[in-house]
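INFO  loader      accepted 1 record
INFO  loader      residues=196
INFO  predictor   begin
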Amino acid sequence: MMDPENADGDPSYAYKSSLMGAPFEFRLAVDAIEWRKGSYAGRTPYGRIRRIRLSFRPITMQNYRFLTEVWPAEGPKLQIASSSWKSVFEHERFDAAYRTFVTELARRVGAAGGQTSFDTGSPVLLYWLGVVVFIGASLALAALIVRAVQEAAWSGAAFIAAFLGLFLWQAGAFFHRNRPGKFDPAAVPPQVLPRP
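INFO  predictor   done
INFO  writer      dumping tokens
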């Protein structure tokens, strides 16, 4: 689904956001990002992009997935994902292609000199509400482990401890990568991009 450069030499990227739908196709022209999905198409000059947000967004079928959201001054919000539907049970990762395309998009938008906001992570309110729930759930699981040990329910304590470890690892990575912030378009932070 990825074509690093099209016939014009412009960087391009494509992915399928759903199994049955048409792929999203993006191209970085000299002065604008161009996109197409089926019969719908659009073009937004880099200086008319008001906001770009990069985040880590795992989904059920793909637990290592990144998302770029682009808000033009006019027109619909664009979403660029690092993985694509391949079959009913499989997603295909485009880590290197996504990283290259998104880095170049940020650089071009930054060079255009518009009033663009470059954001990372989740929206602030959702992030901190999530952190509170994460801490509360972690403490509740730790309390269950303590209670199971007091009752000498060793297998139950071990099961809950294993679950807590997995929870801390998965949710901890999510919150680490999605901390709200701003970024320099010439230096996109690595935590919101797939590994090279």
